[in-house]
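Exam revision sheet. Question 4 asks you to relate a sequence to its structure. Input first:
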Amino acid sequence: MIICGDDGLVHRLAQELDAVCGEAVTVVLPSRRDGHGADVVALHRDPHSPVELLISARPDEQALRAAGVERAAALALTYGDDQMNMTAALLARSINPSVRLVIRMFNRDRGRHLERLLDRAAAAYTRDDDTSIDASTTILSDADTAVPELVAAAAVGRGHTLQVEGKVFRGVVRPAGTPPHATDLATLAVLSGTHMDDPLGEDSAETPGASGTQLLPDTATAYHRQFTHGRLMLEEVTQHHAPASPSRRRRRRAYGGWLRDRIGHLPWKIFVSREVTAVFGVLGAAVVLLATATAVVEDGPLWKSVYLPLLDIFTMGDPATEESTARQVLQLIAGFVGLAVLPLVVAATMNATLAFRTASANHVPDTSLHDHIVLVGLGKIGTRVLAQLCTTDHKVVVIERDPQARGVALARELGVHLLLEDAAAPGVLDLARITTSKSLLVLTHDDGENLDIVMAARESNPRVRAVMRLYGDDFAATVSRTMRAGYPDALTRSRSVSALAAPSFAAAMMGRHVLGVMPVERGSLLFTVVDVAGHPELEGHSIHEAFKEHEWRVLAVGPSTSRHSASSTDTLGGFRTDRPAFDWRPPHGRILRHDDRVVLVTTRRGLDFLMTGVQPLPVGRRQHPAH
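Answer key, structure tokens:
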């Protein structure tokens, strides 16, 4: 496996492929010192599982050949520059047509076009009848791959998540003696008593050995040991659904009701604020005094005594050169009053209008709202988190201080509660009803600001589940430990987007059949999609018979598709999905046919055996091929 990049995702991905997946890895970095170079150098110097290291300013042809792309199984291009990734991908495909490509792209449209181009190139370079070659191209966005985990952390708390066909699953620990839940799908592991608190390794960088843990146990073991040990279960968290699309008439009626409600709640009181009232009061008093003086010195009706001073104040009247001296003096006084008061009137009116627009843009939740999720930040990550949250049944309140942020339009379109305020300002979190919320997601770009917001929320609601985005790993670990110590009854999670994205990139590098990797202590479980045809261990067997203890278990069954459509596979984060749906609760007696495809949870050894038919080396005898 070759990784080329220049940020934290390189280090995370190298660590994932080497330590969790057991792959031989070569990393191409622009510098040993800049960015996360030092972290990769530390992996390179590890005597137990060294990562090969190559320094090159750009991933040009010379650098790719030096990294061994001609004989590599997969190449990941994770630079922050789309153009650099695209150029390197085209070079790599021409050098090694069979290499599996995983490319990080921020521009989704460009990514789709590049994926089609590279897949066509691979088909042209390789023989159509060679089914052993997986020269796939996968375009991923770290934002898209991180979103499901952020949503799950806010919605359900702890647990490693997996997203397939719009459904979200997670690994959850059931304590000893706990009866099965209706949402549980399968037993993934029976846990040793010493590691039940953190089997997924969420709270520590390295977890002790798992001497008493059994991955994928048989039913009898899982049942009898649950009374003395905990179990790691695969739980269906929630079923995502698309927002309802009402008819045009219903939409108009719904919009009309929303508009009447918004008009009724607009902050009209701003126009009678103390500042506006004082300025217009002064103007009114001046008009009354001048009108009274005009009525005394000039004959005529009362309306004329008011009309003339108003014209003079607004400098709209003709000069009183042919009138009495008293009238001329009053006109001059009115002119000076206008010069003094009218700028104040204009300023007060503009300030009130601006305040009205800002206040009316907010959609403040009422006091009855509870058990909702407060989302702070509508940047690239926050916008996609909001879109996914709104496909669930969770109520959301959004805080964003920039009215031009990319997610503001989406928030208004979805009709969620929106506060265009600074979440760190006093009183803003109270407006979002933080005291009655169940979760807080803070996804701004500033680590310090994110921490400030979470600490302020903890003061108002000590038990709120807090998930914050932090870039620095050491800083994130320190914050998590301190927050857990200060608020032991509350759940605090700090998340790095690169750390969340790494498993998806690793899964794509290992092949499109891999949907995700779930670490369990120092081992790992892989979730894969496999066509039953050609696998004698599966074809013709019932689901119960196809189970192989400690190796693999069938989770779901669906109809197969041709190999050609495998470019549109099931998804974890960035993968597309347009295949027929899986049955996630098939009968154990269901016979697997050649035209079926299945979702399997496997160990690494089990997947190697299933895909190659060759029994892998025993654990502990991993060998890195020479480069």
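Marking note for examiners. Residues 202-211, 239-255, 562-579, 619-627 have pLDDT under 50 and may be disordered.
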